[in-house]
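Per reviewer request, we include the raw input and output of the structure prediction for the construct analysed in the revised manuscript.
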Amino acid sequence: MEAADRPTERTYGNWRKPTSPGIGNLGLVGTIVLLGGIALMVIAMMVSLIAGVLVLVLVVLTVAPLFFKDRYGRTMLQRMTARLAWEHGRTRGQHIYRSGPLGKTGTRSFRLPGLAAAIAVHDATDSYGRPFGLIEVPATGHYSAVFECGADGASLVDPDQVDTWVAYWGAWLASLAHEPSLVAAAVSVETAPDPGTGLAAEVRSQLKPEAPPLARQVLQQIVRQYPPGSAQINARVSVTYSALPHVGTRRRARDEMATQIGTRLPGLSARLGMTGAGEARPMTERQIAEMVRIAYDPSVHSLIEAARELGGSGLTWADAGPVMAQESIGYYRHDSAASITWGMSEAPRGEVLSSVLTGLLAPHRDIARKRVTILYRPHDPAAAAQLVERDRRDAAFRLGGPKPAARDMVNHAAAEQSAREEAKGAGLVRFAMLVTATVESPAELPAAAAAVDVLAPPARIQLRRMYGSQATAFAAALPIGIVLPDHVLVPQFIRNAS
């Protein structure tokens, strides 16, 4: 085949980080503060020179933390606020969690710590008669359901088939904007050592008494040797709905949300099957509890797997949390394991192939358990049109200088392309990524952190360790319906303008 006849590999890109217009590195809020301070200084100088100088010093001290940003795009004010919040919580003992009969929670159950403490899971049934666990987050009025997927994987698959899966995945994400009351979705891919119980049970069920001795010996050897060198990969997708359809309306009851979500699940799971996710099955309350219990205490994984083969573990949501959890500024200790969670601070700048995340998602020998979670927040068509036009104007504003930077020129072209695609019917989705590495002891954390630092550059993403927020980020990386922006006290419009 000649070079001209070879099919070109399809690339993906045009991810943009939302920005706001401003002077230099200042956003809209910082620019308003600066201009207001200058006006106030001029007025003060009419009264006395000393008053003007004092106002000038005050303005500089106020604007400087907003002007200087680190490599991750965080201002000095954001770093100072996060550090002060961490120290305040640590002095009040909020970084230590003890549950159970001897704990300090006031109950005898093992509820989840921190942000997930009030979450409850209820039994429900979808329109196909399949049971599923309805996750309720009372603080935000959100209800979620989780799919467990049997992902096919891209090994030995033609590139055309992979491109088709990616196209269907893009269509699935775009369809979320038309889902009534849907506010978020999440995809979590977790790799962990295979305990081998499933393989052993499958071999026992298929082994016949009249089997030849050689065949029996080979199967027994496979059961003994295969699990230590293999990994278990679990893919889960969660969808989150709001009980408050519109501002000013009443919040819908749990039974109403169970009916609505149960009606939507069959269609969502059917469309997921065309994305390469395989069979998407709603997870029950017990399965969700087992997933969370293993995440906080990986040592019970083999016990839960063995209990499943005997009819079920009987685990409930009230017992899904850890007995002990202690948060440090850079890592999180929970029961028999320790974890570090990173957040994506920048998406790939250029175009990438569909296999860009393969290395990050694959098992790694220095990380016992690894969870990569992509969080999506789709915008409805009306909001999407406003956002792309606002980003288009902001990019044009930054390009208006006499010598625009090369990055501003690229951002302007990307904003124009996004506006054109949205006008043709494309959806707009904001996304983030959390990466959690879990090991058996804190002594293994440096090796796990070094492994993630090596895996991130080939994936073309920039990761930042979630200092001071390890417990919250660990819980948010689980597909249990936690939408982080809705738990922040600072209003959304201020965050967008900073």
